[in-house]
Please model this.
Amino acid sequence: MSVAEDQLDRAFAALGDPVRRAMIARLSRGPATVNELAEPFPITKQAVSRHIQVLEAAGLITRTRDGQRRPCHLVPAALEALTSWIDEYRLETERRFRRLDAVLQSVKEQEQ
Amino acid sequence: MSVAEDQLDRAFAALGDPVRRAMIARLSRGPATVNELAEPFPITKQAVSRHIQVLEAAGLITRTRDGQRRPCHLVPAALEALTSWIDEYRLETERRFRRLDAVLQSVKEQEQ
DNA sequence: CCTATATTCAACACATCGGTTGATCAAGGG
DNA sequence: CCCTTGATCAACCGATGTGTTGAATATAGG
Model:
């Protein structure tokens, strides 16, 4: 399996967890540290730290250093890669539906 | 957790598997039965049947009946819900980046 | 009717995931 | 220096996911 496919695996799977989706939502408003990301959730910092590692491995976030802190930053290009993948197949399906509608319409007109 | 959130969980997690993504790609070109979807993969029909159940539970496909066969159909609206979710946060992040760029630019101009 | 085909159900094995606790590492601040 | 704070590592546990095999169900078709 290609590297790109592997990243899609990780990225989609990462978004399959509500805690990680909430972190993405938070990060869209600006960088945040582990502690800041942990605040809304009733789980340990260690668990949050691992969620962050999952998001990083998926390429959805990057991390910088600020003293002791390791702020997380969203990577919009990674999100864009996901929407591109989805849209390719969604748009193809919608085109197919439109073609089918056109056929049904012409059949209907024939019958009249 | 809301029903909608739950569907996002299932849908993103469903796309986290390469077999299921390949099935989505196949279904974008038209309906297919379990046997047809199973053909490209070196796994049993039972395993394929369960992948299909996962996609159906996620709302990504629906199934009809054609005699013994149970053709699968892609649901473009479900895919659209995923891109909407992603785009909300991607676009917010990009707007934030542009604001930051503007600030940096004005600082640079001040210095000159 | 009887048999073949399409699909699913049930039970099991094994890996991965998401959480915990406890220890450890690294950077800052008195 | 020492102690606090931020973050991670390691080991463990229960739940879930993905595959298998074998049996069951349902429809088609001679």
